[in-house]
Structures are given as C-alpha cells and as structure tokens.
Amino acid sequence: MKFAVQYISFFVIQGEGADAASAKNYRHYQTLDENDYEDSALQQFLDGEFARIAKRKVERNPRAEQVPTKIGRFITEPGF
Question: Which domain holds residue 55?
C-alpha cells in the first residue's frame, strides 16, 4: 500500500491536572506540505510506520486512551 501525503501536521497534546484525560489542550507544532515532507528525514520513518498501521487491526473507538503507535495518534481529514 502506498500513501500519498499532501499535508502533514503535528500537534503537541498536553494533559493538565490530576486527571489528565479530562483536561487536554493542544498547540500546533508544524505543518509540512508534500514537497517539504518528501525532503524531510521524517519521510522514510513515517512511510514504514504508515505501512505497519495499515496492516494493524485496531478498535475504532477504544475504551482506553493508550497510544496506538510509538509516535502517537493519527487522524485523517474526512474523505481521505
């Protein structure tokens, strides 16, 4: 399976307080377009991760908030 990355954005998600699951905030870290992504060191690493993620069977709505991959969560835009 081949993935085509048009844009990829990275966010930092932080939990605050004793119950980190209830109080989360995030901030935008960086967005790369297709050309920046292809020229970056991240491409080789993420291409391997995308292939592993595509093969894995995961719950659509998991009960626990465990991070499904070693680099965090992936979210796609609707329709992609």
Answer: 1-80
Give backbone dihedrals phi and psi of 23, rounded to 5 degrees, phi first. -125, 90
For the chain, how many residues are written? 80
Q: Which amino acid is at 43?
A: Q
pTM: 0.53
Q: Is the pLDDT confidence value at 43 over 60?
A: yes
* Predicted pLDDT at 14: 79
Count of structural domains within the chain:
1
**What are the pLDDT digits (tens) for 54-75?**
777 656 655 666 655 555 666 6
Residues 30 and 41: their CA atoms lie apart, in Å, by 14
Report the Cα 15 to chain-centroid distance in Å.
Answer: 17
Q: Which tokens in the block code for residue 44?
A: 């080789």
Residue pair 66/43 in contact (Cβ under 8 Å)? The answer is no
Strand, coil or helix: what is 52?
Answer: helix
